[in-house]
Amino acid sequence: MATQTLVMPGEVLSEDVLPIPSNPSVALKLGPGLRHIPPSTVTTTIAGSLCVDRKKNAVWVENNSGRYIPQPNDVVIATVHHSSTDWYHCSITPHTAFAQLPQLAFEGATKKTRPQLVAGSLIYARVLSASKHLDPEIVCYNPSTGKSEGMGELKGGMVFDVSLGMARRLLLSKQKDEGGLVVLDELAGEMAFEIAVGRNGKVWIKAGGVKETLLVGRSLQETDCDSLRVDEQRKLVKKLLRQT
User: Fold this and answer.
1) What is the 3-state secondary structure (H, E, C) of 32-69?
2) Residue 213 has what DSSP assignment?
3) CA-to-CA dists, residue 129 to 5, 17, 99, 151, 216, angstroms
4) pLDDT digit string (tens) for 150-202?
5) Is the pTM of this model over 0.70?
6) Which of 233, 230, 98, 124 is nearest to 177 (CA)?
7) Distant-in-sequence, close-in-space partners of 78: CB < 8 Å, separation ≥ 6
8) CA-to-CA distance for 89 and 92, rounded, in angstroms?
9) How confident is the model over 102-111, as pLDDT tens digits?
């Protein structure tokens, strides 16, 4: 479980704050909002909550008001803007350069079987590489396994915007214990729906109909905007279900 501490830009992180891996050969993973100054200094670049996940040996700064900056291994929801001979050029956020998606970067894809995406197509992808000097590259499979694991084109449904902090909480494996979220569990007990969460603050939802899809999206957005507690999330879901 990740612990959090409030930090300001320019702070130098002390060694006792950083996670100590059980295996010394495992490198420390620095996420958004942090800068490494050789040989061993780590400083903050933005204000926010310093999140430390000792299990994953990772540390980052969470800032809901900041812009999303692509990081390797992040899952994102992107929109195809246009294509070229070997690439799809995709928008992750309005303020970042287009992410490059190889047309064969899908599980088992060949020139004959690759998906035929058009402008406006939605995709669920993983950031393969990203730096301030190069456009990010994304793929629709897990590089470790070669399997899609739910990534690829998202057909139908709707996309909703949430804060970056909410997106991170939705991606936690134990949403209630680690993120204080029960809204999806409460909804799942009443209706069937599909969901894909992007680290870039995008959530794709597809339910049985338009009303149900809007209900799920509204539940997430109100939970996010109003910072609802667990009991308040349960009340919200019951209220919205009565109104549907």
Assistant:
1) CCEEEECCCEEEECCCEEEEEECCCCEEEEECCCCCCC
2) H
3) 28, 27, 10, 17, 32
4) 999 999 999 999 998 899 889 987 788 777 899 999 999 999 999 999 999 99
5) yes
6) 230
7) 90, 91, 92, 99, 101, 122, 123, 125, 138, 198, 200
8) 10
9) 999 999 999 9
